[in-house]
Specification:
With 306 residues, this protein is an alpha+beta fold. It is built from 5 helices and 10 strands; from the N terminus they run αβββββββββαβααα. It has 2 domains: 64 residues, Type Iii Antifreeze Protein Isoform Hplc 12 (Alpha-Beta Complex), CATH 3.90.1210; 156 residues, no CATH class. Helix content is 40%, strand content 18%. InterPro entries: SAF.
Length: 306
């Protein structure tokens, strides 16, 4: 009986020792885990406090007022007061050439297409030259025009002689209006005189006057005119001012003759197919002239009227 009690007591002691050891191990594990969680929480709290301090510092920084487009503006658009909306930005985040007032912006031209709320700077805009007193509108129906030409496009007008000599006659001219093959542009007195000389030159020497489109007119520099006005032609113009009108008329008729020749080459079946295509499509198919070796610009020659 005594032995049984002693054995039982030993078992109890052993059980208590096991429980105590297990408790110590579990407690140590929980202590380590709790310590790591506390460290992680303290670290996260420190990061959040640092971020909050940064945001508070940014919010406390001084703001500057700039101007941005209220809507999308295409390249070449002349900005008006109604196109602008005020924006506020941190002082240290704006470029050095930002424009501070609407008066600095209104009337200037957009170089590239601009999205709404884009801060306007000097590099994004340019100012057109003041209108000179000798500027005049000039209608021209004798120039071979690109098939893709539209109003407000920018072109160079060139003259090409049968010898292969090719000169720039008018540089970087905007198309003010376009109707039935007649293009209207603004020319100054010097350009008008040079054009008159070129018209008579083309009439007398079977040259062609044609136009080429700029790809990115807001980014491309203006070409330098290279056509030398012919002294003999200028003397002829002084002697007979009507020769310019006759030469221009001959050039216009020649351009029209080339167009009618192209139209006459279209068969009745092709015309019917084209009409059917137009009835079912929002836009017509590319012109057959675009597939020609000259890229849609027919070369023509002319001489003095008989």
């Amino acid at each position: 009986m005594f032995r049984m009690r002693r054995k039982t007591k030993h078992l109890i002691y052993a059980g208590l020792a096991g429980v105590i050891a297990t408790g110590l191990i579990f407690g140590g594990f929980m202590f380590v885990k709790t310590s790591k969680m506390t460290e992680a929480r303290i670290e996260m709290q420190g990061r959040l406090e640092a971020e909050i301090r940064i945001l508070q510092e940014e919010a406390g920084r001084s703001k500057v007022q700039g101007w941005a487009p209220a809507r999308e503006l295409p390249a070449g658009h002349v900005i008006s007061m109604e196109d602008l909306v005020s924006v506020e930005l941190p002082e240290g985040s704006v470029p050095s050439d930002w424009l501070k007032t609407r008066e600095q912006i209104a009337g200037k031209t957009v170089k590239l297409s601009l999205k709404p709320n884009t801060l306007l700077t000097g590099t994004l805009l340019y100012e057109e030259e003041p209108t000179p007193s000798d500027l005049r509108f000039r209608e021209m129906g004798f120039i071979q025009l690109p098939g893709a030409l539209s109003e407000q496009d920018v072109i160079d007008v060139r003259i090409q002689f049968p010898t292969g000599q090719d000169y720039i006659l008018l540089a970087k001219k905007k198309v003010n209006s376009l109707a039935s093959g007649t293009v209207t542009m603004t020319l100054n007195e010097s350009e008008i005189l040079s054009l008159s000389s070129a018209i008579v030159d083309a009439y007398l020497h079977k040259a062609s006057i044609y136009a080429l489109l700029y790809v990115e007119p807001s980014l491309q520099a203006k070409a330098i005119p290279t056509y030398p006005a012919n002294e003999a032609v200028l003397k002829l113009i002084k002697q007979d001012p009507n020769i310019v009108g006759r030469a221009e008329h001959a050039l216009s008729n020649s351009a029209r003759t080339g167009l009618e020749a192209d139209l006459g080459g279209v068969s009745a079946q092709s015309a019917a197919e084209y009409a059917g295509y137009q009835a079912t499509q929002a836009s017509p198919p590319p012109s057959s002239r675009a597939d020609s070796p000259t890229g849609g610009q027919e070369q023509f020659v002319m001489g003095p009227a008989e």
